[in-house]
Sequence to fold (406 residues):
Amino acid sequence: MRTPLLVISLGLLLVGAAPALDSLNVRLVGHCSTPDVAQGVAAMASYAYVADLDSGLRVISVADPAHPTEVGHCATPGRAWRVAVSGSYAYVADRPGGLCVISIADPVHPVEVGNCDSTLNAVGVAVSGDHAYLAGGDSGLRVISITDPAHPVEVGYFDTPGNANDVAVDGDLAYVAGGDSGLRVISVANPAHPVEVGFCVTLGEGLSVTVNGEYADYSDGGSGLRVISVADSAHPVELGHWGPGYPNYVRAAAVIGDFAYAASDMSPVRVISIADPANPVEVGYYNSGALALGVAVAGDYAYAALSAGGLLIFQYYGGGVEEEPSAELRTASRMPTVAHGALFVPEATGQKPQAASLMDAAGRKVMDLHPGANDVRALAPGVYFVRGEGRGIGDEGPIRKVVVTR
Fold:
């Protein structure tokens, strides 16, 4: 069984660097503008939910990731800072308006159903069971009962040593990004009386924290990604870190599987392998000069919230399928190619027809291919891989990368 880990990103204020427009193993899939500063984002099913400061909550359909479209919005009393989604509700940290509860049962017509003005500095939110947890800046951690979403009510709080900038909850433990006081681990087994059980001081200012399965991530700026074991919640211990340094001030991160996705000033998304917690390694990035303030991961896609307003959708394709060299496919005439909505697979040189499969970046088969033209107009734009049939049992044959565009 894997040891639970906490991933942290740390940093300093950075200004004045020229953007580097390049990428590694990450492609930009789609973009949708928002009216204000996209401060935070959550993703569930076919929708992304953007906390867009003075323009409230924006609901964006991502059913077609290449063409995300806003379908609904809901104004909030304060400034929408962060958002968490659970069931048919979105919970917005609405600085300075406390907790705003919005029904998203009809994504086209989201509507506020409840509000709890428990803190004037609500900058982070997490939901677990019948409670929402607010990071209240200098007001610490606030625990809100949402048993009745129309009437959320504060039931407990804990005054953290530093500013509570964000919160994530896993079981009976809340993890607070505590500014310059580092990671604070707080037991919420009794929601009315939260109690700190452990802490780990970090180098920078804790900005955000999320939990995903066995992992949590704690973003703290320019010191990068710090991996902390929380197997012993009373004594969290740093195991390793990845430090981007200038000019990549890391503001938020999300973890899924063995990968952390970091949002930063110069790179809306950087992908860090944490398969070896003691030695995190960058395996992908997309540099555009855009400042990303929030990031979420769902399925095959990462969603970045931009300070300039808008949602960017990315796909990391470095962890699923890898191209392999092949003597049979060395010439340009024998490479699979895409043109005018058709994927052309070359004929075999021998008597046996060449069978092939088309896979997505995660290694899942999308469709069977036959020699000649294959209609791929129904596929979403992106990076795919053609796998040829091998010569014997257990031989999967050569793999070649192809890019499908509109």
Q: What stands out?
A: Residues 91 and 101 are 5 Å apart (CA to CA). The radius of gyration is 23 Å. Residues 7-20, 320-334, 349-353, 390-396 have pLDDT under 50 and may be disordered. The chain has two domains: 5-316, 327-404.
